[in-house]
Each structure stands twice: as structure tokens, then as C-alpha cells.
Amino acid sequence: MTLEKLPRNKTNDYTTEMAAERRAIVEKHSGHSLFHTGQFSIPPAALPGNIEGFSGIVQVPMGFAGPLLVNGEHAQGEFYVPMATTEGTLVASYSRGMALTRAAGGITTTVIDDAMQRAPVFVFKNARAARDFGLWVTAHFDEIKAAAETTTQSGKLRDIEQYAASKMRWLRFNMTTGDAAGQNMVSKATHAACQWILAQKPADLEHFTLAANFDTDKKHSVVNNLHSRGKRVVAEITIPAGLLEPIMHCSAQALSKQRGLSNLGAFMAGAVSNGAHFANGVAAVFLACGQDIANVAESSAGFVYTELMENGDYYMSATIPSLIVATYGGGTGLPTQRECLESMDCYGTGKAYKLAEIIAATVLCGELSLASAIVSNEWVSSHDAYGRNRP
């Protein structure tokens, strides 16, 4: 059976009527109703640039975790954190971690790096020509920077890293992108810069391509761990020993022992993160707040570090090296996503670092809560009470 082509309207494809036409065809073919996906409050006219062939809405339950107390440079005070998920226990677990960290005086957050990348590759006749090209790029950085920045008002070329193999030279363009996530911005700017480079006719150049997987878009990598992609954020706290037992039902000593076991387990498994579940917190906030959900691939990797202090207190930090967030552009302006961002005062210009700090603090709370649940033998029982575990 050949499926009929879904209708498109070249004049105005973003209407309630066009969405209904497409759903009707799918319903006829599948024999199943799309009633709920056809119920939405978002005006279709708001969706150009976010989706093609709009046909309806997939609704994900959303709850608020918190209050979360953050002592950041950009996020300061208490926040209710919107988290969209279908995993029972998740919001409750993060709220429990937030209760502990709030009682301990709040989480300190710091953005320590910020850049988005595109990494074109230039292929030469031999390695010597590739090396000489690299020297030429360094000498002409100002001209390359000027060419890149002709395409954007907010993007700035910070530097160009160089990586060599055989007769190839990868150029990793690092750009700041303001409050946008910036992948498209950086692609356009890098394209303009590379067109200028090509116009100078580099000697013995055999081939060029704008991307060859070194920027590791939508996937994590060692280079992201070391040099970052998006925001590099640290969330940290020292928890008084006397707070752990009444709230988490475990001791600092037990958490410290669990951390050592988790570090070794992650190492043996070849995991990209020694954390327990960064992805849960990152994905839930991303869904609620209109972030590019595929960037969870980079944004959910990170490092947990802990210390058992001499006085029995427990220091813990979570470092997210490649947190890709936006408070302007993309899906952030859609009505429900904008509401979630506005609930934390994180919508619009000048708010990207604030959102990054809130997400990092949220991740730390989730790490604390899950580790405590495992140590106190409450992990399974909590899922029995709130999650999907059913007889």
C-alpha cells in the first residue's frame, strides 16, 4: 500500500486547518485517533522556524521541583524549577535534594567558560603544507575574525584551536553567542570565515569541508570535556554532617564510600560521566524550557567530585563541561516554554548564564538525592511509592 502524500500549503502551512488535514490522513491510515494531539493552545502561526508540517502537540507532564536555593553570580535566591518528564519519582527526588541543599545554605554556582564551535577541515597535498597553513591561520586571525563576524551582531570569534592529523588541519572556531545556543549562528559565521580563507587560495589545498565531526555536534566527546561546548558550569556545596541523617537517612561517610565505588564503576564501564544521572535533570528542564533536546547528548556528561571533610561535613561539586542552553531564540519563545522560563526569570536577553547556573544546581541536587537513596536502601521503595514499579 502506497501512503498518500501529506498536504502542504505553500502560502500558509501553519494553520489549525492544515494541522487537522494532516492528522486526518494519518488517522485514516493507522485506524487510530489523534484526538489528544489535536488539542493545543499554542497558535500555529507561532511555529515557523521550529517545525515543519505542524500536525499537533505532544504533551509531556510538567511539575515544579523546589524551592532551590542558588548562590550564583547570575542566579541568586530561591527558584521553583520546571521539569517535564514521564518518569515517576523524578520531581520528588530532585525536590528532596533541593530541601537538603537549601537547609545547608544553598548551592554556589560558577560559569567558568562559554563558547560554541564549528570545526571545518582543510586537506592538503602533504603534512608540511597543512602545517604551514596552520601558521598562516594564526598570522591572519584578525582578518578571519572580521569575516566571521560580518554574519552576526551578537556572535564574537574568541579564538581558533587547531588540530592536525596526516595532511589534514581541523580548525575549531570558538565563538561566544550571547543568549542563543548558537549552533546555526556559528555555522553561518564559520562558513563566511572559511569562504574568505578559500578566497586567499591556500597553497596545495586539495579539499575543504565545513564540518567533519570534530565539533561533535549532538554527541559528547573528550574535546568537549577538556575545552567545553556551550557553558562550562560548576555547582558546589558543603553539607554539614548533622543535616544528612535527618533528611537523607545516611551519613557523610556512607556517601563518601559510595562515591568511590561509583567512580570505579564508571571508569570500568568506560562511561563519559562519573555522575549517576545528570541526564534526568538536564532533559527534564530542557523539555520544559524549550531547549534543543538533542543537546542532552553533550549537556548530560560531567564530573562529580566529593570530599569528606575532617569535621565530618561533606563537600560535593558537579561540573557540566558542555551545557548548551538558550534564553532567546529557538524554542524558548513558544508560549508554554516561555512561561516556564519566565517562572524563573530566565527568558530573554542577559539570562543564559542564570539558566545555566540553575540547571547545574538542579543536577547537583539530583546527584545527592539518588546517591543517598542508594546508600539508605530507599531507591527501590521510592519508585514503588511514586514511580512505575508495580506488582
From TrEMBL:
Keyword list, A-Z: NADP, Oxidoreductase
Gene3D superfamilies: 3-hydroxy-3-methylglutaryl-coenzyme A Reductase, Chain A, domain 2, Hydroxymethylglutaryl-CoA reductase, class I/II, NAD/NADP-binding domain
Listed GO MF terms: hydroxymethylglutaryl-CoA reductase (NADPH) activity
SUPFAM superfamilies noted in UniProt: NAD-binding domain of HMG-CoA reductase, Substrate-binding domain of HMG-CoA reductase
GO biological process, one term: coenzyme A metabolic process
InterPro entries: HMG_CoA_Rdtase (IPR002202), HMG_CoA_Rdtase_cat_sf (IPR023074), HMG_CoA_Rdtase_eu_arc (IPR004554), HMG_CoA_Rdtase_NAD(P)-bd_sf (IPR009023), HMG_CoA_Rdtase_sub-bd_dom_sf (IPR009029)
Highest taxon of the lineage: Bacteria
Coiled coil, from the record: none
Entry's EC annotation: 1.1.1.34
A Pfam family reported for this protein in Swiss-Prot or TrEMBL: HMG-CoA_red
Record family assignment: Belongs to the HMG-CoA reductase family.
Protein's name in the database: hydroxymethylglutaryl-CoA reductase (NADPH)
Gene source species: Aquirhabdus parva
